[in-house]
Amino acid sequence: MNTVATKEIINIDEKKCKSCDHCTSVCPTGAIQGRIGVKHYIDHKKCVNCGQCLINCPFGAITDISMVEKVKKALADPQKFVVVQTAPAVRVALGEEFGLEPGTNVKGKMFASLRKLGFDKVYDTEFTADLTIMEEGTELIHRIFAHAGVPGYEKEGPLPQFTSCCPAWIKYAEDKYPKILPHLSSAKSPQQMFGAVAKTYAAEKLGINPADMFVVSVMPCTAKKFECQREEMIASGFQDVDAVITTRELAQMIKEAGIDFRSLSNEEQADRLIGTSTGAATIFGVTGGVMEAALRTAYEILSGQSLGVVEFKAVRGRKPVREATVNIPVKELGKTVPLNVCIVTGLSHVDGVVEDVLAGRSKYHFIEVMNCPGGCINGGGQPIRRDTY
Amino acid sequence: MSEIKGKVLKHSEQTRTMHWVHLICFIILGLTGIAFYFDIAGIVNLFGGEAAASDVHHWTGVIFTLAPLVYVLFNFERFAKFIDTITTFTKDDLGWLKTMGGYIPFIKAEHIPPQDKYNAGQKMLGLLVIAGCILMIVTGFPMWLLKHSMPPVLVWLTWKIHFWTAVILILAVLGHFFLAAIHPKSRVEFASMMIDGYVDAEYTSHHNAKWFAELKKAE
């Protein structure tokens, strides 16, 4: 396993590759070169680092780079104040590595084990998932106002607005559809918002020099390892997120430390300073979750009314491309506006949607795109269940 | 000096042809398969590189599948008789297995019971080869044609079954080759399958006594 930080996140071990060619069927961008009987390799220019090939390789021949040693070094350094954030999809998958039923929520045990591993502050990415949705929801409202000709919003971006929290989707859009970039929300992903907030607001409140702060993310996603290394992710004046480890790697660290995970209390909470969150943040990890969270925000702000039932069940489901229309009474326009939304899960299904937008044929106002089938819950960093695949 | 002279026809022309075709396919499939699994560039290059070797393996697999099917279609009675013979185990077969037909030096074999057209060892080999070939075919085609639609666990399972069945078949065929072509007690049979189909009547009278008696009776 490569332990040096590099942007070539996913790699095929040629010695282990059996040339079965299964991986080419799950790669959403056609980045894997090879055919049955011929050793496969990854074209990193096309690869979006999603790790779907990794979790689907029948022979375990595909690996992701590891930042675990970097994290251990920081934890062992008394000069470093090590902060960790945990994504929503991690807590319902981590238990699988310890023999618990898939879907078991081990949030408390996860926080307890992170404290035992020596992290100085244990936070929840759900806090910044809420920030993301406030940003993204507000941006959507502004774009709708701009589209409706409301004065003061002329400089807002075009509709439809695409979500921007999936790093695999962002790289795919940059690589294949640069013209679509103005349609992408300008909001950073929850991971990167957390890094920036941790090294500015939290550092200030905690009285820590941000230069001594080391921010670690526990993510269900291998593409987050690419995202944290992007040159522009230095809003705090430092690299906002220093290292990303996956759910699998956290489980490995817990096992190596000899922590009896199953016997830990499940009642422990995240540290509070940047740990508060809503249920809208929790559903980020599943397809349609970001859309539903954004609709809740947009509905309340646009209508000025509190939502009685917060669920928008029309956007839920497992179909790769789903659409729904939500009627929102817009107070500022004095009329009800039908908001057309679309949810895409799996990048291999996004081309038609993007091409419609570029051709001016799209009827949508807001489009959620997640690379992994089913959302982050099925990310490339999640536990691999070879018995059930 | 034995009074039995002459030869008996053991394997028909079509049987011998099918055996030759299957043998050649088996060697090609075995060599390319070993080369893929153990990543042996020397063998792969013999077939023109990875991509060409892969194609050779797949299309040879098609011939490997079709050859016995065509044979059975045109020789159904002969095949049915063959299946009947290799699936019939009597106390004579058990007696042969107890002494391993006298082929194993340290197993005493004072009396070897009379055998059918195929001895108990050949019957077991026949069953093993048929079962093995079926397993290779039912795993091989999905590995090739359903590689994108099967879940990873099935891909893994088909590869493992394909590999271990191949290992068993290769060992069995090597043993078969040793007894049929090299071992001094039985190599006279080599020509009957590989060349003209005939085997010495005298040899048959004691190696396949039951079958020989049937032939005499029919005469």
From TrEMBL, chain A:
GO molecular function: ferredoxin hydrogenase activity; iron ion binding; iron-sulfur cluster binding
Chain ranges of the 4Fe-4S ferredoxin-type domain: 8-37, 38-68
Stored Pfam families: Fe_hyd_lg_C, Fer4
Transmembrane segments: none
Keywords recorded for this protein, A-Z: Iron, Iron-sulfur, Metal-binding
The name this protein goes by in its record: Ferredoxin hydrogenase
Species of the source: Thermosyntropha lipolytica DSM 11003
Automatic annotation (TrEMBL), chain B:
Alphabetically ordered keywords of this record: Cell membrane, Membrane, Transmembrane, Transmembrane helix
GO biological process: anaerobic respiration; formate oxidation; respiratory electron transport chain
Protein location: Cell membrane
Membrane topology annotation: Multi-pass membrane protein
InterPro entries from the UniProt entry: Cyt_b561_bac/Ni-Hgenase, Di-haem_cyt_TM, FDH_cytochrome_b556_subunit
Residue spans crossing the bilayer: 20-44, 56-74, 125-146, 161-182
GO CC entries: formate dehydrogenase complex; plasma membrane
Record domain Cytochrome b561 bacterial/Ni-hydrogenase: where: 11-193
Any GO MF annotation of the entry: formate dehydrogenase (quinone) activity
Name of the protein described by the UniProt record: Formate dehydrogenase gamma subunit
